[in-house]
Each structure stands twice: as structure tokens, then as C-alpha cells.
Amino acid sequence: MVSTDRHGFASDNNSGAHPKIMDAIIKANQGHVIAYGDDPYTQSACKKFEEVFGKGTQVYFVYNGTGANVVSLQAITSSFNAIICAQTAHINEDECGAPEKFTGCKLLTLPSSDGKIRVKQVEPLLHILGNEHHAQPCAVSITQATELGTVYRPEEIKAITTFAHDHGMRVHMDGARICNAAASLGLGLREITRDVGIDILSFGGTKNGLMFGEAVVIFDTELARDFKFIRKQSTQLASKMRFIAVQFETLLSDELWLENARHANEMARLLANEIKDIPGVEITQSVDINALFVKLPREIIPRLQEESFFYVWDEGQSIVRWMTSFDTTEEDIEAFVKLLKKHLASV
């Protein structure tokens, strides 16, 4: 078994919770409050979201990222609809068919070498609108940052949302790493969501220092009308919601979200700089956030994994994924690069 003493590079899900988040949970663990969100902690957290995203923002806390995506997509679709997304999208590749199961919708996936989709790819799919023999495109789902670690610029998002709205569709953003994307762009969270036309956002926290819990952030108030029923029916209503809410309020206070994300991103850039000139190592994607996609000699991958586990992204091309976290240190990177060089020397 790989030692847990050293911070690894398998996933930012593998990190613990930030000390300030732990403190917030402990402080909230006092006495009794009304369950299911009708408590002062949840109400205070909702006000914090309004401060960050603007007046009228509606927020609903859920257990996990798949749950956030599923209930978000349920809110903007009917079972005869289709959802357009990148082939690499988490809702397509990594959610065990949950979006299709709970929405009843068909996913229309688009190829993408960088994880992004473009309007020119979406437009040809709309020829089936009105044809009763086909699932009707109703929603576009984009991921920010993408599963390949790249970031949509605001103008790219605006182009998609404008096109979608002009054709009667809504746009969902899977923001599992929205904080890392905003930090990379040097922009606020509102500037890459509400201000560029996103209708509903899955706001990720566990990859950026939370212990558990995600949030669905609704900017189109019409979508909030029945959302509490969708959340309940989808088994995402937490009884002791205060423990999710206080984490998010802490994350959004004093720019902890930015501090954590910025550090994780900086550590990824440091790792990239340390390996970019090593023979036999090729970085295959732009290092925009806290993710590196790296092509390695196939034979060293299992040996390197034994000492510091990580995931193979593309078996055929021998591409692996390395993720940094809010708690990654320079010493972690130094030790990992040393291991990498040792195994490369044996090839």
C-alpha cells in the first residue's frame, strides 16, 4: 500500500479538509437546530452566495458532485430531451449513467481534443428540433475547468450561452473545479457564471478544501420554483444541512476559495516547470489549473504508481493525470520529480 504520509498527485479529492473548514464544522456542532436547511447556518450561507453571485441567486446544498449535476439537469429538462456535452464530460464518462437514469434524457456528446465545446459543433445538432422521432436538444452542459484541465474564457462561455438561449435551450455548468478556473483567469466567480449567461451551476467544494457537500446555484429564478422537490426526490436533501452550509460560507469568506485554488494551480505550474525539459516526458495539455496530463514511457508507469499512486488517463497513448491540491507542498513536488527521474533513468 502506498504511504499516506506524503501528499500524492492522484486527485484533489484525496486531500483532507482545510483546517478552517474543520473549525467551522466543529463550531456548528453545538446544540439543536431545525433540520433540512431551515436553520441559521444555512440561511447565512445562502446570503453569502448572494454576496458573491448577486442578488436573487438561489442556492441548494447537496451531498456530492454527481448529485449536483443530476438535479441541475433535471431542473432544465424533460425526459424526451437531449443534453449536449463534450465527450469527455464528467456527466458522460464518470457518473455511471446517473444523468440518463434520473433525467431520462439522451446525451449528445461532442468530440474535443481540449475538453471544450464550441458553438459550431452544437449548431448541426439542432436540425432535429421539432422532429418527434428524435430526443429534443434542450440543454448544453459545459465543464469549467474542463476534464482536461483547460479553462473556458468568458467570451467562449458567452458565445455558447447566447446561442443556446437564442434557440430555447438552457446552459448548465459543471463547476467541480470552478474555483481553480476563476483563479486561473484572474476573475471572480460571478464573472464566469452569472455574468456570461449560465442558468444553473454545480458549484464544487470538495476538490478545494471541503470535507463533503456541493451546491447547486440557480441564476434563472424560474428554475428554482420546483427545485426543492427535485432535490428531495433525488435523495440529495441533507437533514443536517448546517454542516454543508458552514463549509461553503467559510470557503466563500475572506477569499479562502481563491487562496486554496490559487495555491493548487501554482503547485501544478511548478510541477510542470520541473518536468517540462525532462527527456521522455511530454505535457499534452495546457496547464491552466491544478491538473497535468503527461505522456510517459509505458514501462515506468506501474513502477512509479507503486511509490506515488496516480491515474492513467489514456492507456493507449500512455498519458497519465497528475493533480495538485490546496495542501500540496514544494517538498511533495521535489520528492515526486526525484522519483520520476529515478524511474526514467532505468528505461
Helix content: 25-40%
Structurally, the number of domains stands at 2
Strand % is 15-25%
Low-confidence stretches: none
CATH homologous superfamily title of the largest domain: Type I PLP-dependent aspartate aminotransferase-like (Major domain)
Number of strands: 11
Task: Report the CATH architecture of the largest domain.
Answer: 3-Layer(aba) Sandwich
In this structure, how is the largest beta sheet organized?
A: 7 strands, mixed
Query: Number of DSSP helices?
Result: 13
Q: Could you characterize what this model shows?
A:
The protein has 2 domains: 19-252, Type I PLP-dependent aspartate aminotransferase-like (Major domain) (Aspartate Aminotransferase, domain 2, 3-Layer(aba) Sandwich); 256-345, Aspartate Aminotransferase, domain 1 (Alpha-Beta Complex). The strands form 2 sheets. It has a 7-stranded mixed sheet with strand order 1-7-6-5-4-2-3, with helices on both faces. The chain has helices at 19-28, 40-53, 65-75, 90-93, 98-103, 119-122, 154-166, 178-185, 227-233, 242-252, 256-275, 301-307, 330-345, and strands at 58-62, 81-86, 106-110, 136-143, 170-175, 200-203, 214-218, 282-283, 291-295, 311-314, 319-323. It is 38% helix and 16% strand. The protein contains 13 helices and 11 strands. By secondary structure, the protein is of the alpha/beta class.
